[in-house]
Specification:
Helices cover 21% and strands 35% of the residues. By secondary structure, it is an alpha+beta fold. The protein has a 7-stranded antiparallel sheet with strand order 1-2-3-4-5-6-7, with no helix packed on it. Strands 8, 9, 10, 11 and 12 form a 5-stranded antiparallel sheet that branches. The longest helix is centred in the N-terminal third of the chain and has 27 residues. The chain is globular.
């Protein structure tokens, strides 16, 4: 009986070890990342209105494919440094972007809506290892996917639908000593309306008319009148990229040099 019990115990231990090793292997296995099809790019012939090569998927997504260049100081000339893909649906303000190394391996992936970074930006080395992550909406408890239905319900405004630049959305953060607050600023050009929106709740805090004021002035004036809206800085909500249309999550775009 003891021998039988020991055999069962041994089998159980071996099984546990096997499953543990298998689980560890799966967790440490690199995720298969997308690659840029260089040969496909060379064979593209269709150019869009921006003079960029593109293709259309079966479900109607337009993919712009762009060759990136960087300046070689030693040779004093531009050289191909990688590739860029921009994915978007017709009449949509939502964009996905992928940057690739010269060999076609994925370097960076990110998303935006109306020029504002959303979701998680990820950067990889050429071996496919994740080397950097950034929450493009850090500091905002009311993420863009929460703001979209709020504005549809309260203002009948669709942030996803393309509208010939009539709707402008900004992010603006303010920090005074150890307190801070993030806001959205929504501008409706054809109605001359400016809405200040709470970045934590999505509540519309005030509505004013467009003027020569800077975006930051709307925020400063509101905070001066309502100082209690500021909240203590914590490690989770502290951020240095609240301000501006693109934010730090898209700073790499400004380094792109196209030929």
């Amino acid at each position: 009986i003891k021998n039988i019990t020991m055999k069962k115990l041994t089998i159980i231990i071996i099984a546990i070890i096997f499953f543990a090793i298998n689980a560890f292997s799966q967790n440490n296995k690199k995720m298969e990342l997308r690659k840029f099809d260089i040969e496909e790019f060379r064979n593209l012939t269709d150019l869009d209105e921006f003079n960029e090569y593109y293709l259309m998927t079966e479900d109607g997504i337009k993919i712009q494919k762009i060759m990136l260049f960087s300046y070689n100081e030693e040779l004093r000339k531009d050289e191909v440094s990688g590739y860029l893909e921009i994915w978007r649906r017709p009449n949509s303000e939502y964009v996905k972007q992928y940057e690739y190394y010269l060999d076609g391996s994925l370097k960076l992936e990110c998303q935006s809506l109306r020029g504002l970074g959303i979701g998680i930006l990820k950067e990889y080395d050429q071996a496919g290892n994740l080397i950097y992550e950034e929450d493009s909406e850090k500091g905002y408890d009311c993420k863009m996917n929460m703001l979209i239905p709020i504005l549809r319900s309260k203002l009948n405004i669709d942030l996803i639908q393309k509208d010939d630049n009539n709707i402008i959305l900004h992010k603006e953060g303010i920090r005074i000593e150890d307190k801070r607050k993030c806001f959205y600023i929504l501008i409706i050009l054809d109605k001359n309306n400016v809405y200040l929106i709470d970045g934590d709740t999505g509540d519309i805090l005030q509505k004013t008319k467009t003027s020569s004021k800077l975006i930051s002035d709307h925020v400063k004036e509101y905070v001066e009148k309502h100082p209690k809206i500021l909240k203590p800085v914590t490690q989770s909500n502290d951020t240095k990229h609240d301000e501006g249309t693109w934010g730090d999550a898209f700073r790499w775009l400004f380094n792109i040099k196209k030929k």
